[in-house]
């Protein structure tokens, strides 16, 4: 895994400063969605080979939640944004 | 607002300056104040600076930002609890502030070997041409969260939560031991 992460607020930081909290889940199902949709949302994770979006918390720095786009094969990080920017689209 | 006065007591041993090294000097900063200011999404450092100038110009001090829309307002004078309450009352909507003088402890580390000492604990680049005088960063020294500010050529100020201060103090002396 890449040892340096470019926090949009703090700049290049070692990954030891971050807590990794797993994939960015798909949008929450509607309240009336059937059980399989909820089961998928709550329990099932994709573990893809390739591009993956993950929540990282910059615990040792700005303490902001970030969304990091990482390739699980090459470990290249293509994009890091503050998680609050996801809200703009209304589906985070 | 708090219900009882805060006693600000140094967490360090009685004569901490006695532990200084030749090439590295480590000293507690006992005086002054630390205020933690939170701003809403529209708050900028510029607007906060102007605000401070308007409501408490006599305090001076500097702002360093640990996170977006958050600042530590740090200065060297004593601020009474009444004065703090006055400033708080003048703070407009969109800002919130707490007195952290008792909760955050500052220390000064300086000397020609200061970067070699800090490099043992922190992973950020403190090289003179990368980390300018006045610049600060919220990061870690070992596993201890610390705000590092460069105050002069070979001088840094480190601010940590009070309960970590003595631990970091001892650690800094271990890190500096080879330069005795
Ligand atoms: Zn950060």
Instruction: Return the CATH architecture of the largest domain in chain B.
Output: 2-Layer Sandwich
Largest sheet of chain B: 5 strands, antiparallel
Q: Quick one: biggest sheet of chain A?
A: 4 strands, antiparallel
Bound molecules: zinc ion
String of helices and strands of chain B: EEHEEHEEHEEEH
What is the CATH superfamily classification of chain A? Answer: Folate-binding superfamily
Number of helices of chain A: 1
Distance between the termini of chain A: 26 Å
Using only C-alpha atoms, the radius of gyration of chain B works out to 17 Å
Short description, anyone?
Chain A is mainly beta.
Walk me through this protein's architecture.
The complex is a heterodimer of chains A (92) and B (180). Chain A is mostly beta strands and 92 residues long. Chain A has a single domain (4-85), classed as Folate-binding fold (2-Layer Sandwich), CATH 3.30.2270.10. Chain A has 1 helix and 6 strands, in the order βββαβββ. Chain A has one helix spanning 35-43; strands spanning 4-7, 11-14, 19-23, 51-57, 65-71, 77-82. In chain A, the strands form 2 sheets. A 4-stranded antiparallel β-sheet of chain A has the order 3-4-5-6, with no helix packed on it. In chain A, strands 1-2 form a two-stranded antiparallel ribbon. Chain A is globular. In chain A, 14% of the residues are buried. The model of chain A has no long low-confidence stretch (mean pLDDT 89). Chain B is built from 4 helices and 9 strands; from the N terminus they run E-E-H-E-E-H-E-E-H-E-E-E-H. Chain B has 180 residues and is an alpha+beta fold. Chain B is 23% helix and 32% strand. The mean pLDDT of chain B is 91. Chain B has 2 domains: 25-30 and 103-179, 2-Layer Sandwich (Gyrase A, domain 2), CATH 3.30.1360; 33-99, Alpha-Beta Plaits. Chain B has a 5-stranded antiparallel β-sheet, with helices on one face. In chain B, strands 3-4-2-5 form a 4-stranded antiparallel β-sheet, with no helix packed on it. Chains A and B meet through loops of A and strand 7 of B. The complex binds zinc ion. Zinc ion (ZN) binds next to loops of chain A.
